[in-house]
Amino acid sequence: MHRKSTSQIFELGECLAEAKSVQPEKRFGRWLKDNCGYSVRSAWNFISVHERLADHRERLEKHAIPSTALIELAKAEPDQIEDVIKLYDEGKSLKLSEIKALVGGKKDEAEELTDLRQLGGRTGLQKMAAAKLKSSTAEFHRLIAAVLVGLEEAVARHESGKRIVMNALAADVEINARHASDLFKDVVAPLVQVERMPKANLQHEQFGLKTGWGAVQHSLYRLGGVGSWPVRDDMEKWVIEIARPALRFAVHGEPYVVCADAATSPVVEVAKIDSDVTKNEQIAAEKEVKADETIPVISDDQQDATLKSLVAAGKTATEARISR
Predict the structure, then answer these.
(1) What is the 3-state secondary structure (H, E, C) of the chain?
(2) Buried b vs exposed e over 182-216: b needs ≥16 C-beta within 10 Å?
(3) How far apart are CA 174 and CA 223, in angstroms?
(4) Long-range contact pairs involving 156-162 (C-beta distance under 8 Å, separation at least 24)
C-alpha cells in the first residue's frame, strides 16, 4: 500500500469513491473485505486524497509525494495544504512529522467540544457555515448516488428491450431526489429577487440546462415530483437523455453534453410550476390594483339618494329605541 506512486494513490481514491457511491448503505465495509482487502479506514484515507487534493494533483505528482504524506495532507485546511505544497515547490523535502506539524495535527479536544452556536462574530458565522456545508454536502452525495442507482436500473431495463416501469422508478428515486434537490438549493443556489416583484420573498436561482449542475438541479427537481411527470414516452426519453447523464456528471464527474433539443422540449422546463405560481401571483396583484382604481358606474345623484335613505333609516331606528 505504501509503495504506490502518487498517481496511483489518486487513481485508487477515485475508484474507491466511485465504488462507495453505488454500494447500499452500510455495505461498503463488507464490499471492501470481499473485493479489495482494505479496511474502511484505509479506503476513506484514499478517498479523502482524491476528494480533497484533486485541485493540487498535478503539483503533487510532480513532487512524487508518498502515500502517507498525501493522507496526512488531505486532513489539512485549504490554506495549510497550499503552504505545504509551496514548500515542495521551493525544493524542500518534508518528512511526515514535519507535515503533521505544519497542518497542526488533530484538533484540540476543547475545540471539538465547542458549541459553534455560542461563537459570535464573523469567525463564529464562518465556522457554523463550514460545519453545515460539510454535513449537507456529504448527505447530498449519499442521496444523489442512491438516485443514480435507480436511474441506472431503469435505463438497463430499457436497453434490454423492456419499458421503464414508472411506478417502480418513482418508488426508487422520488423521496431521495426531493431531499437532494432541497440540499442542492440550500448549499449551492444563490438567493435572488423575483423579477418584477421586489417585495416578494427571495427565490433560489435556476442555473439552466446548458450547464452540468443546472441539469442536475433540474433533474432532481423533476424526479422529486412524481405528480408532475409527463407521459411515459416523454419521461422515458428524458430519463435517458437528460437525467441519467446529469447525475453521472454529479456522482462520477463525467462530462455533461447538452442535449440538442433540451432548450425547446416542454419536458425539460426547469421549475415551470414555480414560474407559473409567480406569474399567477403577479396577475392577481395587478387585478387588485385595477379593482381599487376602477371608477364607480353609478351617478352622483344616485349616490346622494342612497346615502339619504341610509341616514333616514338609521334615524328611524334610533327614535324607536328611545321611545321604548
Answers:
(1) CCCCCHHHHHHHHHHHHHHHHCCCCCCHHHHHHHHCCCCHHHHHHHHHHHHHCHHHHHHHHHCCCCHHHHHHHCCCCHHHHHHHHHHHHCCCCCCHHHHHHHHCCCCCHHHHCCCHHHCCHHHHHHHHHHHHHHHHHHHHHHHHHHHHHHHHHHHHHHHCCCCCCHHHHHHHHHHHHHHHHHHHHHHCCCEECCCCCCCCCCEECCCCCCCHHHHHHHHHHHHCCHHHCCCHHHHHHHHHHHHHHHHHHHHHCCCCCCCCCCCCCHHHCCCHHHHHHHHHHHHHHHHHHHHHHCCCCCCHHHHHHHHHHHHHHHHHHHHHHHHC
(2) bbbbeebbeeeeeeeeeeeeebbebbebeebbbbb
(3) 6
(4) 158/236, 158/240
Full pLDDT tens readout for the chain, 324 residues: 445 788 888 999 899 989 888 887 678 888 888 888 888 888 888 998 998 898 898 999 888 888 888 888 888 888 888 888 888 888 888 888 888 877 764 454 445 557 777 888 888 888 888 888 888 888 998 899 989 999 999 999 888 889 898 999 999 999 999 999 999 988 888 878 887 888 888 888 888 778 889 999 999 999 999 888 888 888 899 999 999 999 999 888 888 887 655 444 444 444 444 444 344 445 444 544 444 444 445 566 666 676 667 666 665 555 555 555
Q: Minimal CA–CA distance to 70: which of 90, 38, 45?
A: 45
Euclidean distance between CA atoms 165 and 173, whole angstroms: 12
Strand partners, 191: 204
Burial class (CB in 10 A: 0-12, 13-18, 19+), 230: middle
pTM (2 d.p.):
0.50
Torsion sign, CA atoms 104, 64, 41, 184: positive
